[in-house]
Every structure is written in structure tokens, then in C-alpha cells.
Amino acid sequence: MIIGIVAVSFSSIFIKWSAAPASVQGMYRLLFTSLLMLPFARPYSGAAFALRKKDWFMLGLSGTMLALHFLLWMGSLKYTSVASSTMIMALEPVFIMLGAYFLYKERTALSALLGMAIAIGGVLFIGWGDVGVSADNLKGDLLSIGGTAAVAVHMLIGQKLVVRMPSYLYSLIVFLSAVIVFAVYNFFMGVPFFNYPARDWGIFVLLAVVPTVFGHILFNWLLQYVSATTVSMNILGEPVGASILAYLLLGEQLSALQWAGGVLVMFGLAVYLYGGRKKAAKASATLQNVS
């Protein structure tokens, strides 16, 4: 878990270090990750042939949402600080909860709703603090909110698909779908595919290996040994780790309002995750009593 949190915390730093467009960084990050995954995909070929047309459509939609997430969130780092962007990104569970309520009518504990309200209040503090810095910072905050909404849709689609197919196969197909979306976007927007210095190519590889393989894929592997709630606590660790790294490696400073907003976001998310854990434990106990 610690290795995973440190790994994903480096994602924002690598993005800041590269001068390449966000759409190019996202495309090569997922392309190189897919190439690393392909040699281990053969055992899942049978499951791939068994997919229905509807499954392929939903996989493509999930990949599109993932590409949109990277486009908006990586783009936000061109305008605002690492701390502000990652603290807003930490609202992903809240967006997922809202989506699950409207799409699947899933109920949420009152304590989780309270945590959501506190976290949203923290985002407003961050935005207000960024207004005092520059209009560009606020633009970056809005892009990060859009990226968070997109990844929430991506996760909600995945929640329904992984019950019918191996998670490894799901990840690989979605990554490749997102690469195609990025390639089409870059082609029509006239974004160069290859004209980048060696430093940027090195960063593309680092984005694939460090935050993706040793971060997100490692978290998926951890689900075999610890609960999903425990793994989801990395949501709280990434903004803290990224902010520390941004201070040490990029010299970024935060205003008092931004710090206050960040503390509110982290506290709100802790309340939200605690409420979700209590609800899950209660549901488990009810099932055991029935059986």
C-alpha cells in the first residue's frame, strides 16, 4: 500500500516535468502500459472472444471516459498547483457515490453524506484560494473537477463489466480503447505524435511504469488480500504525498485558504469512507444473520 501511494503521488510530478501536451502524455502513458501488459494477456483470449457486442460498446465508452479523465486532469496541472488538482481529484469516491445513486439507485449512509458535504466545502475553499492566485488556477481547478467526474463514470461502467470478465482483460481493453481515442483526438487537433525530446519520452515511460504499474495495477492486485475500503484509503494518501513531493521537487507553495480547503477535503473523505465501511459491515452482518 505504501509503495502504491508513493508511486501514484509521482504522477503529478512527472506531468509537470514534461512540456508535451496532456493528450500526448495520456496516450503514451496508456500505450506503454498496454505494451507491458500484452505479454501476459494470452490466458484471457477465450474471455475476450466470449464478449458480447454490448460489452465491447461499454468497454469503448469506459475507455473514452478514461481518456477524457486524463485529458482534463493532466491539463489541469498546466494551470493549477499539484496540491489543488490532486485534492480535488480525491473527490472521486464522492462522484462515484452520486453516480451510483442516480444510475443504480444505491443508498448511502447519512455519515457518508455528511463527509461528502464537508469535502465539497473543502473544494470551494481551494477554489476560492486559487482565485486569489490567478484566473488560470481556477481554470485548472475546474478542469480537475471535470476529470474527476469523467473517471467516476469510467469506474461506474467498470463496476458492471468486471463481474462478467477478468479485471486484467477489462483494464487492457479499456487502456487500448483510450489510446485510440487519444490518437484520434491528437490527429484531428494537429498535435504532433513524435516530435518530442528524449526527456519527454523518458517521462512517458515513467508515467506508465511508476504510477500505473506500481500504483493502480498494484492496488488492483492488493484487492486479493485486503478490503476494497482499505485500498480506497489511498485516495487520502495521494494528495498528501503529491503535495510533499511538489514542495520538495517543484517548490510549490500553498495559501492558507488552500491548506484549509485541503484539510477539509481530507477530513470529509475520511468521514465518507468511514460511513461507507460501517454500511458495508452492517450489510455483511445482516447477511450472516439471515444465513
UniProtKB/TrEMBL annotation:
A GO CC term assigned to this protein in UniProt: membrane
Membrane topology, from the record: Multi-pass membrane protein
EamA domain mapped to chain residues: 2-127, 139-272
Pfam family, one: EamA
UniProt cross-references to InterPro entries, sorted A to Z: EamA_dom, EmrE-like
Source species, domain of life: Bacteria
Major localization class: membrane
Keyword S-adenosyl-L-methionine: no
Membrane among keywords: yes
Residues passing through the membrane, by range: 26-44, 56-76, 82-103, 110-128, 140-157, 169-189, 201-219, 231-250, 256-274
Keywords assigned: Membrane, Transmembrane, Transmembrane helix
Localization (cell): Endomembrane system
PANTHER family registered for this protein in UniProt: ACYL-MALONYL CONDENSING ENZYME-RELATED, EAMA DOMAIN-CONTAINING PROTEIN
Similarity comment: family membership: Belongs to the EamA transporter family.
Protein name from the UniProt record: EamA family transporter
Native source species: Paenibacillus monticola
